[in-house]
Amino acid sequence: MYRTKKSEDRYQQYRKTESRCPFCTLSGERIIEETKSFYLIKNIYGYDIWDRRKVKIHLLLISKNHIAALQEIEKDMVQEYTDILKKYSERGFDIFTRATVSLTKSQPHFHTHLIKTTGRLLKSVHFNEDPYFLHFS
Ligand SMILES: [Zn+2]
Fold it and tell me: What range(s) does the HIT domain occupy (predicted)?
């Protein structure tokens, strides 16, 4: 998963202004679906690249309550969670959640990424720490 330099800069600018949990202070227009315990929302700072392919849609499944990790999901939430993931998996979305101790995890509120790509493969990726460059074929 990567963002282009422009997207990463935009995200980092936003992070500097963040004072409260963004998923606990969610604006309604981002919500795509809602269940008793979860919101499925548009990721407004989504990745540009996933599995070397250009990202078309990047959604986040977030718990309505502020919990920190998958293992904190209550038993009555499991069916809702898996029903949404099954539905979007059938629609071609890849699904992933970072480990609780992940050093890459940027938000403390539990969330699962649902990502659909265009299928377009990157020709090359050049890293020089930050910034880095992505080039499509
Ligand atoms: Zn939160």
Answer: 54-116
